[in-house]
Amino acid sequence: MMTIEEFKKKQTNKTRLIGLDLGSKRIGVAICDDRQSIATPFKTINKTNNNELIDELNTIIKENNIKGIIIGNPINMDGSEGSSSQSIKDVSTNIGKSIDIPVCLWDERLSTVGAFNLSSQLDINVSKKVKNIDQNAAAFILQGAIDFLSN
C-alpha cells in the first residue's frame, strides 16, 4: 500500500486507473480515461469471496489497460480511522499482494452521499440511484483522486 504522493510518482502519462468503493456485499467500480481527467462509473460487482473479487479485478484490469487502483478509505468525519477503515485496509492489502499494479487508498468521506446527490441533480429516479450507487460512489472517489493527482 502506498500514499497518494508515492502513487503519483509511479504513474505516467496516458495511464488509466480504476477506482473501487469496497462494500461488504457490493463493490463499485469506476474507470478513468487515459488522460486521467474523467472518472466514469463502470460496474458493480457482487462480492462473494476475495478470490472471485481478485479474478474479476484482474479481468477488468487486463481488458482496460489499467495501471493503478484507487480504493476508497472510509475515514470517520473527525479524521480518525474506525473499524470500517481497518477492514478496507485489510482487503486493500490483499488486493495489493494479488495484483501487480500500484494500489492507493483515498479518503472517501461522503462519497456515497455525494454520488447520491449528484444523481439527484441529474433527475435520475430513485430506483436507478440505488441500483448504481456503488459504481457512482467509485466514480466520485476516483474523480477526487485524479483531480488531486493532476495538481
CATH-scheme architecture:
2-Layer Sandwich
Query: What is the makeup of the main sheet?
Result: 5 strands, mixed
CATH topology: Nucleotidyltransferase, domain 5
Q: Tell me the number of helical segments per DSSP (H or I, 4 or more residues long).
A: 5
Helix-strand pattern? HEEEHEHEHH
Helix content: 40-55%
Uncertain runs are none
Distance N to C terminus? 22 Å
Q: Supply Rg.
A: 14 Å
Overview of this protein structure:
This protein has 151 residues and is an alpha/beta fold. The protein has a single domain, classed as 2-Layer Sandwich (Nucleotidyltransferase, domain 5), CATH 3.30.420. The chain contains five helices and five strands. It has helices spanning 4-10, 50-64, 83-98, 111-121, 126-150; strands spanning 16-22, 26-32, 39-46, 66-73, 103-107. The protein has a five-stranded mixed beta sheet with strand order 3-2-1-4-5, with helices on both faces. β4, α3 (83-98) and β5 form a beta-alpha-beta unit. α4 (111-121) packs across α5 (126-150). The relative contact order is 0.24. The model has no long low-confidence stretch (mean pLDDT 85).
